[in-house]
Amino acid sequence: AAMPTIPAISEHLGETLATIHRDAVARPVQGRLADYIPALAVVVPSQCGIAVATLDGEVAAAGDAETAFSIQSISKVFSLVLSMQRMGASLWSRVGMEPSGQPFNSIVQLEWEHGIPRNPFINAGAILVADTLVAHFSASRPAFLGFLRKLSGNERLMVNEEVLASESLHGSRNAALAHLMKSFGNLEAEVGQVLDHYFFQCSVEMNCTDLARSLLFLANRGTQPSSGEVVCSQRDAHRVNAILSTSGMYDQSGQFAFSVGLPAKSGVGGGIVAIVPGYGVIAAWSPPLNAHGNSSTALWMITRLAGKLGLSIY
Ligand code: GLN
C-alpha cells in the first residue's frame, strides 16, 4: 500500500522553522540544566536550534542547528538499533517493552521485575543494551561511533572527553542499576566495561542536522534514503518507533503522545528527536530541562511544529 503522503510542506518549511525558533527564544527560559553531570551544567543555556530532514534529502534548519551538543539518551535509539541487528529476538527476553511511568533513572521497578528493565530507553534498559554491545563487539565503543558516523555521513563526530569523565565520576546511580542487573544474572559483561560503553555513547556530540539525517531510516521503514542502506528491517523500524512512542520521553511519554503524537527521544543534553514516518525527522535542542528531564524549549518547538503541520501519527 502507498504511504500516506503529507501535503507538500517543505516549500515554506525554512520559514516555519525560523518563526518557531524566533518565538521560542523570545519566551522566558524555563527549566534547569542537568547538573547531576557537572560538565553539562556549564553549557550556555540560551542556545536553541531546530532542524528537519526529509526523506527526499532536504534539510531545513533554524537557530543553533549546527552546534554540536551532548546527545545523552538520544544515543539509546542508536544503541538499540545496533543491538537489534546483533541480537535478533533474544534481546526481548532481557529487556521489556512497557512504559515505566517512572523517572529515567529509577531503580525501584528493576528489583520488583527481577533485573529485567521495563524498556530500552530508561537508563536500566540502555545499560542492558550496552551490555549486549560489549558482549558482541570486540571493541564496542569504536563500533558505536562508526555506526553514528556512517548514519550521519559526518566522519568528524566525536565524544566529548570532559563530559565522559564527568559522567563516570558521577555515575553512581547508573552503577547501581548495572550492579542490580548483574546480581539478577541479566548482565553478561563486566559491570565496569558496560558502564564505560554506556557513558561513552551518552557523551557523543552531534548537532540537530546530524541527528535528523541519521535517524531518517526510522521514518523510512528501516532504509537510509540517501544511500539505500538497510539499517534494520521494516518490522524492527516499526518496533523501535512503537517503543519510542510509549517510552521515549520517559514519564512524559503519555503527554507527548497526546500533544504531539510522534515517536520521539529526549536526552539530558537538551536534545529531542521526533520521527515523522513517511516524511522525515525533526531534531530540536535547547539545554534547560523540565522536571521530567526533557528540554522545555525543544519540546515547545516540536509541539508547535507538529501542531502547525498536523504531524500526529494518531
Ligand atoms: N547519561 C545520562 C545518564 O545516564 C543520560 C540520561 C538522559 O539523557 N536522560 O544519566
UniProtKB/TrEMBL annotation:
UniProt binding sites for substrate: S73, N123, E167, N174, Y198, Y250, V268
Reactions catalysed, as given in the entry: L-glutamine + H2O = L-glutamate + NH4(+)
NADP is among the record's keywords: no
Protein name as it appears in the record: Glutaminase
Top-level class of the enzyme under EC nomenclature: hydrolase
Quaternary structure and partners: Homotetramer.
Family of the protein in this entry: Belongs to the glutaminase family.
Record's keyword annotation contains Hydrolase: yes
Organism listed in the record: Halomonas kalidii
Enzyme Commission no: 3.5.1.2
Upper taxonomic lineage: Bacteria, Pseudomonadati, Pseudomonadota, Gammaproteobacteria, Oceanospirillales
Pfam families cross-referenced by the UniProt entry: Glutaminase
Leader sequence segment: none
Domain of life: Bacteria
GO molecular function terms listed in the Swiss-Prot or TrEMBL record: glutaminase activity
Keywords, sorted A to Z: Acetylation, Hydrolase
